[in-house]
Amino acid sequence: MLAVVTGAHGVGGEVKLKPFSDNLDRFTRFNDGALTLRSLRAGTVARFAEVADRSAAEALRGTYLSVPRAELPPLEEGEYYHSDLIGLPVHTPDGTAIGTVVLVENFGAGDVIEIERPDGKRFMVPMRPEAVPEWSPERLLVDPAFTE
Fold it and tell me: Which CATH number fits domain 82-146: 2.30.30.240, 3.40.50.150, 1.10.10.60, 2.40.50.180?
């Protein structure tokens, strides 16, 4: 998921976006080709060829924009896509199961992961080495000091 449509912008069919990527303009087709990007302003206002007016733009509210994984740029060492973390089981370094990653947020100071315990309660942990000493495609380890 690269962005979500948050609503219409004006009366001509443009939409407002909440981007999760700073390079949306590198893509031209989203959602399996259902949306074709015609223009993008300031990374947050888009016009799609298939959206002709405000009503059609409003109908897209809440739509997530995605592209096939193969179209995403390769990752550098230590980088990850948020979708790679969601659903990972979470353990402490001694192997104690804690829960599952259910959300990744970024409030400006770095990524924060939200973990859901088996009882349904959730807590947040910064995605920093002191809190998350190790992660892999199979699991994520969290220092016990950050689980309370």
Answer: 2.30.30.240
Whether 73 and 81 have beta carbons less than 8 Å apart is answered as: no
pTM of structure: 0.72
In this predicted model, what pLDDT tens digit does every residue of 68-113 receive, in sequence order?
Answer: 989 988 888 888 888 899 999 999 999 999 999 999 988 888 899 9
Q: Which CATH superfamily is domain 3-70 in?
A: RimM (2.40.30.60)
**The dihedral sign for the CA sequence 127, 133, 137, 140:** negative
Alpha helices in 27-145 (DSSP H): 54-59, 82-85
Where exactly are the structural domains of the chain?
Answer: 3-70, 82-146
Per DSSP, what are the bridge partners of residue 141?
91, 134
C-alpha to C-alpha distance for 133 and 140, rounded to whole angstroms? 9
